[in-house]
Task: inverse folding
């Protein structure tokens, strides 16, 4: 845990690792996105699994950093900027295994494509939620007084669930409406 | 002498029939029974000739068969004439289904009506159930300016004309062999397929009406290469297994779509929550209705590249498929002998039996479950927060009173809620309240 608290690994390396992990999780969706260009006149001969992985890592990494930047910035006034920066750094250590495990489980799509609709909706969220819970435990012990545990847990947990709840609700509305 | 020669001739013919032969680029199927003489109609030469005749050459060629165009109508006229030459009678077993598609106009531009047609041949009409075999004959060779569609000079030879050639050879074989069947065989050449499978849609809604009497729907999409993909469904099906098993007898490899095809999250068939290129074909509308369907398509699908090459012309097809006729001949033979087999009727009763995956295809249900899981996590969060608040309560900030110890701390009782300020000077420290010495005071002299 000293590695995290003392920030022994450079942020740039952590960002790269998070991008790769999130990209692994988003890889199967990106394959489909590239394949959907076929027949449109777009030069798809260059598209393959390697290109799909690189593009998914880039896009997933950018999205992850942007979302965490906005979320932690909104929590800075109650948690403190310094502590928020530490937490944002620490979160990457927990999202990396979440992304890797999510991507590994999604390998099931190769063998059972039927799992794609439910898998894309549920697998990534469940792994991220579990590891985010671990992150909350770590953050409380590393960065907070005991009497702050409840408040910090509520702040972090509600932000995470609000984000995913919004995305799930939006998906449901779009699905029903269309 | 004449009788001896005739007898010798018969013996030699029969011997040749049972020996079988492979001659150069031509493949003549080994004949084991007289009934299988129909296989002679499915030779590579015959299929190549059918393809060349359909595409044509010179001034009247049909390389341009752009959807909704006069060129497409010209191709339909050729198909009708060709099928009629097999013995199908117009308005009895040979039909042309004209249909239209309209664009929505606005205040400035009126809508435009486009015309196309399906050519339909029926063998054994009048039965209560049918087998539908189809191929599309159009392409997007030229521009369709009003629709904003750019022509690609693509002749759709591999992806289209090969299927047409196979279907024409099947029509000829049915007419010539007159096999006894329990089903009507409806052979449909779809027009306007390249622009959203319009022809197959109109065939279902306007010509067929109901899909319930279709026991099997076979679409001949791309019949080329050494390998042909036979897509039936996302799960194992009895009709898919039947054709794949029967396909093992041929030199062309007939294989199911690889499960590792990239999954596209866009919906192509309304009963599936995703799509991939093996399912791309005119069979989709009947497939959506639950009709057991097969799509014979490109065997070298890697899932990323939809077309075999950027431009699909007769020349590029021939260059890439020196044995192109073999795939067509094997496909025609496979389809013909499977649907005319004595065991087909009994097998067809099991075509609709498959694993029901409709629940798994529902994104709505997946999102509802996702929201329920989020709700569970939210409830767990509240429980945990409450427990933490109880175990580690927030320390209240006590306001302390500030008091002056006028007479010294000895006279005050200390407690945690009070802060005392002792105003007495410390020993040695000058009392700042004392007045300075008066130099005029006699006492200070």
Result:
């Amino acid at each position: 845990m000293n590695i995290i608290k003392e920030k022994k690994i450079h942020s740039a390396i952590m960002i790269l690792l998070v991008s790769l992990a999130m990209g692994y999780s988003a890889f199967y969706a990106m394959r489909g996105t590239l394949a959907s260009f076929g027949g449109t006149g777009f030069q798809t001969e260059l598209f393959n699994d390697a290109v799909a992985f690189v593009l998914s890592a880039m896009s997933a990494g950018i999205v992850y950093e942007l979302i965490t930047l906005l979320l932690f910035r909104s929590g800075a006034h109650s948690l403190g900027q310094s502590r928020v920066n530490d937490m944002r750094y620490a979160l990457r250590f927990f999202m990396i295994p979440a992304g890797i495990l999510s991507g590994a489980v999604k390998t099931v799509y190769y063998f059972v494509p039927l799992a794609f609709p439910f898998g894309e909706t549920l697998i990534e969220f469940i792994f991220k939620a579990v590891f985010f819970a671990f992150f909350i435990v770590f953050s409380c012990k590393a960065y907070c007084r005991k009497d702050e545990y409840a408040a910090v847990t509520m702040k972090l947990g509600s932000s995470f669930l609000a984000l995913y709840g919004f995305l799930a609700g939006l998906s449901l509305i779009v699905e029903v409406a269309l | 002498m004449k009788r001896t020669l005739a007898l010798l001739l018969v013996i030699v013919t029969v011997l040749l029939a049972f020996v079988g032969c492979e001659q150069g680029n031509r493949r003549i199927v080994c004949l084991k029974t007289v009934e299988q003489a129909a296989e002679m109609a499915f030779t590579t030469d015959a299929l190549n000739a059918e393809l060349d005749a359909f595409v044509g050459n010179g001034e009247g060629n049909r390389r341009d068969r752009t959807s909704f165009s006069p060129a497409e109508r010209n191709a339909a006229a050729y198909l009708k004439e060709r099928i009629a030459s097999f013995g199908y009678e117009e308005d009895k077993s040979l039909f042309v289904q004209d249909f239209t598609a309209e664009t929505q106009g606005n205040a400035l531009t009126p809508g435009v009506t486009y015309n196309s047609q399906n050519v339909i041949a029926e063998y054994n009409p009048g039965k209560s159930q049918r087998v539908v075999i189809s191929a599309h004959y159009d392409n997007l060779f030229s521009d369709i300016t009003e629709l904003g569609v750019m022509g690609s000079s693509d002749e759709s030879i591999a992806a289209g004309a090969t299927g047409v050639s196979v279907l024409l050879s099947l029509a000829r074989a049915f007419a010539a062999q007159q096999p006894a069947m329990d089903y009507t065989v409806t052979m449909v050449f779809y027009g306007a397929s390249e622009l959203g499978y319009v022809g197959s849609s109109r065939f279902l809604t306007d010509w067929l009406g109901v899909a319930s009497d279709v026991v099997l729907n076979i679409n001949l999409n791309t019949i080329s290469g050494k390998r042909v993909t036979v897509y039936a469904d996302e799960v194992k099906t009895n009709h898919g297994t039947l054709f794949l098993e029967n396909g093992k007898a041929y030199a062309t490899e007939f294989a199911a779509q690889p499960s590792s095809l990239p999954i596209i999250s866009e919906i192509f068939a309304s009963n599936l929550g995703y799509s991939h290129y093996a399912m791309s074909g005119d069979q989709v509308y009947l497939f959506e209705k639950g009709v057991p369907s097969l799509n014979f398509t490109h065997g070298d699908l890697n899932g990323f590249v939809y077309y075999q090459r950027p431009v699909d012309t007769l020349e590029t097809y021939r260059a890439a498929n020196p044995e192109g006729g073999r795939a067509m001949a094997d496909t025609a033979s496979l389809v013909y002998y499977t649907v005319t087999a004595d065991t087909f009727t009994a097998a067809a009763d099991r075509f609709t039996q498959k694993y029901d995956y409709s629940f798994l295809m529902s994104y709505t249900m997946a999102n509802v479950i996702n929201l329920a899981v989020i709700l569970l996590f939210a409830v767990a969060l509240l429980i945990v927060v409450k427990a933490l608040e109880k175990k580690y309560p927030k320390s209240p900030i006590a306001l302390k009173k500030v008091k002056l110890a006028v007479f010294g701390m000895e006279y005050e009782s200390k407690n945690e809620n009070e802060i005392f300020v002792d105003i007495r000077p410390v020993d040695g420290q000058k009392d700042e309240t004392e007045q300075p010495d008066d130099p005029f005071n006699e006492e200070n002299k």
